[in-house]
Design goal:
371 residues; alpha+beta; 11 strands; binds 3,4-dihydroxyphenylalanine
Length: 371
C-alpha cells in the first residue's frame, strides 16, 4: 500500500473542506472507530515483526499527519467564522445620538417610577397583583362582607362567570387586594410571618365616568407589617414620602378621623396648601390665613381581621396601610387639570406633559425633573 499517496490524498481533502461540519465528517471517516486509518492501525497486530518494523512508522506518520492537518484546518475555519461574525455585528460607536429622544414617558409611568424610587429608599419593595381579581381578595378578606354598603359604592365591573372555587370574578376596584396577596405570600415562605414593606402601584377599575372619574385609573397601595407599628410610623412615612415627591420641605399633613373597613383606626390625610396668584400651591399649614387643606389619600392601621385574613396573628403583627390616586398625584405635581386627557392617547398631549425617557428619576438627581 502507498501510504504517502494516501496521506497526500487525505491532506488534499482536508484542505478543501469549507465548514466545520464537513471537517468533522472527515475526522470520523479517517480516525473514527470504523475509520480507514484506524483500520490500518489494527492490521499491525497481524503482521510479522519485520513487516511491522517498516510498515508501523508509515501508518503512524499517516495518522499523525492527518491528525495535525485536521486540527490546523479546524482552527482556521473557527477563526474565519469568528472574523465573519465580528464583521457582520459591527456597531459604529462614532454615530451621533439622535438630536432628541423619540417618544416620551407618560406622566403616570413617570409618577410610578418616582414612587418606586422614593419608597425604595425607605426599604419598600414594589409588589403587584392581578387586575382580574376575585371578590374574596378584593372585598371579603379586606373586611368588606357581601352585605357591606362599600361593595355597592365601588361600582364594580363583574365578569359573568365565577372561578373554580365559586368566587365571583371582577376587575379590581382598588389596589388593596395586593395587601392580602403580600401577606399570604410571606406566610407561604415563613408560616410564622415576617415584616413586610411594599408599595403596589397599578390599574384599578370602576364603572364611573365624568370629568374627574375614568373607568380605569391608577392607585398606589402601601403596606407595612411589623411588630409594634403605630400611627406615628404612618405619619412619618407619608410625610417623608410627600416631601420627597413634591420636592418641598414645608409639606404639612393633617390626619382626619375617617372610616375604611380594612383599617382601624382610619385616617384621611390632608395636605396644606397656599393660594398663590389664584393657584393652589402645596406647602405650609392649611390653617394659616389664605391657606387650606386638600384631601390627598386614605390610610390607617391595618384592621385585625385583615391581618388574620392574610394568615398572620394580629396579636403578634401590626401594620399600617395607605392608598392614593396616582393620576391625582400626577395632576397635582405637574399641573394637568383634565383627567380624561390622561387616557386619550393623544401624542401631542404626551409630547407636552411627558418626560424624557433618558431622565430616570433618582433621589440624588431629582425625582421629578420636568421634561
Ligand atoms: N382602597 C381605598 C379606595 O380605593 C383606598 C385606601 C384607603 C387604601 C385606606 C388603604 C387605606 O390602604 O388604608 O378608596
Amino acid at each position: 500500500m502507498d501510504y504517502a499517496a494516501t496521506l497526500e490524498d487525505a491532506l488534499a481533502r482536508i484542505a478543501a473542506v469549507q465548514d466545520l461540519g464537513a471537517l468533522e465528517g472527515l475526522r470520523v471517516e479517517f480516525l473514527g472507530k470504523q475509520g480507514s486509518i484506524s483500520g490500518l492501525l489494527k492490521t499491525l497486530g497481524a503482521m510479522s515483526a519485520e513487516q511491522r518494523q517498516t510498515t508501523g512508522p508509515q501508518i503512524h506518520a499517516l495518522r499523525e499527519g492527518v491528525t495535525a492537518a485536521l486540527a490546523e484546518r479546524k482552527a482556521a475555519l473557527e477563526s474565519a467564522a469568528l472574523e465573519a461574525r465580528l464583521a457582520s455585528e459591527t456597531i459604529d460607536l462614532t454615530l451621533p445620538a439622535p438630536a432628541a429622544p423619540r417618544g416620551s414617558v407618560h406622566p403616570v409611568s413617570q409618577v410610578m417610577d418616582e414612587l418606586a424610587e422614593i419608597f425604595a429608599d425607605m426599604g419598600f419593595a414594589v409588589a403587584t397583583g392581578p387586575e382580574i381579581e376575585d371578590d374574596w381578595h378584593n372585598f371579603t378578606a379586606l373586611n368588606i362582607p357581601e352585605s357591606h354598603p362599600a361593595r355597592a359604592m365601588h361600582d364594580t365591573f363583574y365578569f359573568p362567570d365565577k372561578d373554580a372555587e365559586g368566587r365571583a370574578m371582577l376587575l379590581r376596584t382598588h389596589t388593596s387586594p395586593v395587601q392580602i396577596r403580600a401577606m399570604l405570600d410571606v406566610v407561604k415562605q415563613d408560616p410564622g410571618g415576617a415584616p413586610i414593606r411594599i408599595i403596589a402601584p397599578g390599574r384599578v377599575y370602576r364603572s364611573d365616568s365624568d370629568a374627574t372619574h375614568t373607568p380605569m385609573f391608577h392607585q398606589v397601595e402601601g403596606l407595612v407589617i411589623d411588630k409594634g407599628i403605630h400611627l406615628g410610623h404612618l405619619k412619618w412615612t407619608l410625610e417623608t414620602f410627600l416631601k420627597a415627591f413634591f420636592e418641598r420641605d414645608d409639606i404639612v399633613l393633617r390626619l382626619r378621623p375617617s372610616y375604611f373597613p380594612f383599617t382601624e383606626p382610619s385616617v384621611e390625610v390632608d395636605v396644606g396648601f397656599a393660594i398663590v396668584n389664584g393657584k393652589r400651591v402645596l406647602g405650609g399649614s392649611g390653617d394659616a390665613p389664605g391657606h387650606g387643606w386638600m384631601e390627598l389619600l386614605g390610610s390607617g392601621m391595618v384592621n385585625r381581621k385583615v391581618i388574620a385574613a392574610g394568615g398572620l396573628d394580629p396579636d403578634e403583627w401590626q401594620g399600617f396601610a395607605f392608598g392614593a390616586g396616582i393620576d391625582r398625584l400626577a395632576m397635582l405635581k405637574y399641573g394637568m387639570d383634565d383627567l380624561r386627557a390622561f387616557f386619550d392617547g393623544d401624542v401631542r398631549w404626551n409630547a407636552h406633559y411627558g418626560f424624557n425617557p433618558n431622565d430616570v428619576p433618582t433621589l440624588s438627581g431629582g425625582v421629578g425633573t420636568a421634561a
